[in-house]
């Protein structure tokens, strides 16, 4: 993925340090920029990817912008050479000015849609343009992900769902939410979206799950559980719900059970239910959990039914009270 068939040389490069990191600035022809870079997609098998799929419309819009000619200025793309680019100065008098010898591709940290639009533009116009770049000599994979996350969440960027995914190894609920979306046995596997973009059939974002899990595990009894133990609790609770309402779970248009307001209500109620199912040693009684969830069978989740107008945090809390009354009628 990051190998080059032949070495590429970039001339007129300025070398400098940014916060202790060696960096380079210069420009490339568009065709060279396309060939010397690659994108680490969020679903990369290594687990170290982070980029969303390209939004074709954004790339097309940028190609149209470039057609304005000399007025179409744009910012440099941001790269991580990861040690694959070697700098040599032209002479001893100008040690920070010289050439880069590129023996491998650089990962594209920022500028994916710009470069996509540039690629389309040069193909359709059969022309070349210069592409400015800023490249770090070496960032390790975790530094690269952290930097990408920072520059895209402090400004309008990747959104909270992909940010939660990137932080999954450092944040408990981000990890559990990610597992609920990515593991095939999870009821959210076919309806969840990691990148935060809702599409047909995938309407529950990672940020939605993150928030609803915080409702589910808000009680003190769960503080000593490991992430895997919490995952198993959440998995079984939501899976029991899906088993009871299988048709409703997979039909977002006609039923509200997987709408966020209702998922949050199920989680708020679940926090109360789960405390009844866990003993003093932290062991979960899944048979009892299943019994409580089965008491919801009479509930009407229809989009045109009694839950049609429920919305917001107040709606979730109000519905949660009704759910608790159904599952724990004697409480």
What report would you give on this structure?
The protein folds into two domains: 3-153, no CATH class; 159-327, no CATH class. Helix 10 (260-277) packs parallel to helix 12 (312-327). The chain is of the alpha/beta class and 331 residues long. The strands form two sheets. Strands 3-7-4-8-2-1-6-5 form an eight-stranded mixed beta sheet. It has twelve helices and ten strands. Strand 5 (85-89) and strand 6 form a beta hairpin.
Q: Short description, anyone?
A:
This protein is α/β, with parallel strands linked by helices and 331 residues long. It has helices at 30-35, 56-66, 112-125, 141-153, 159-166, 172-182, 206-216, 227-244, 246-249, 260-277, 286-294, 312-327; strands spanning 3-18, 21-29, 37-38, 77-80, 85-89, 97-104, 106-110, 130-136, 192-193, 204-205. The model has no long low-confidence stretch (mean pLDDT 90).
